[in-house]
Amino acid sequence: MNTLTEQMFRDGLMIAVISASLIMALSAWLGVRFTNSKIPGPAIAIFSGLALAYLGGTLTGGSSGIADVGLFSGFALLGGSLLRDFTIVATAMGARFSEMKKAGLPGVLALLLGVVVSFAAGVCLAGLMGYRDPKSLATIGAGACTFIVGPVTGSAIGASSEVIALSIAAGVIKSIGVTIATPWVAKSIGLNSPQSAMIYGGLIGTTSGVAAGLAATDPKLVPYGAITATFYTGLGCLLCPSVLYLILQWMLN
Amino acid sequence: MIHGVALLAACFLFGRVLGEYLGIWIGIDANVGGVGFSMVLLIGAVQWMHNHGRLNPQFESGVIFWGNLYIPVIVAMSAVQNVKGALSSGLIAVLAGIIPTALCFLLVPWLSRLIRTSSDEVSPEKEIKP
Prior knowledge:
Chain A has 12 helices and no strands. Chain A has 253 residues and is mainly α. Chain B is built from 6 helices and no strands. Chain B has helices at 2-25, 34-51, 57-68, 70-79, 83-88, 91-122.
């Protein structure tokens, strides 16, 4: 018995692969059986993943979801950034340059608007909630972009660590919210072509949320959304602590 | 098959290096668009091989295998997010995460229309079905 548990702990990745496969199979079955295929299997699987992460956080008090539960530590490797990026790149196999060219200028516009609108809305919300100093406002606004832009901006302009933690949380909630919301709203926002996926990726920007949301909507769109989203964080890190922060300071004075 | 995986790995590495350099160049300690560069490289390489008749199913399966693993990886990624921490850090984080994103969602159809009109001007005979 001891050897068995030892073996299972050592082969965490294998446990994670088997668990992920079970979750996907169960979700596909649930989707067909109980929602009449209205909710796609991957959407249920991703949501189950989030529920497991909440369970893991509740059980252990840790910050890496289910991976904090010893037996499932392999999830951290399977769902880590290396495999995530590697598999996203592999999905580009199905993408075509001819489709991407059509997005052109509106794609770039989507990236710019995505960062500026998120930042501005985040700043307004923080203002409504009682924040007044430009550093906190800008950091929370940047957190509304992605959970990387928030802390990068916060540390660049010298915001307090509570506000930086808050901006990370906002970014994580955005990514989770996008994952859940995308398959629901896809039809009503016309998310059905490579071009609209590129626009969506540029506007929303949180790579993990965009990729997971598109995977749950239509896996063929993943490469197009991911390709613009991957530039969003970089653009946000560039604009938020510099131009946008200066504009905000100027407006407050 | 291994050659397909190798091409994927090569594009991945080279794209990441480009992303690192772009980050250093604009003064950010982060990888800027590394995944995007990798994808563009892979699409380019595959198209080149296709045009030169060097693409065979064996080779493709090396890349497609990893592409198909994408959804289970995303499921695992969801399972290691700090969902508990994010939900318990207060109303402002929840609002700042949701409301700006909802605004951006609303902009998607508007910008998508821009594409439709601009591509219609270039090729009026090619109608894009809504």
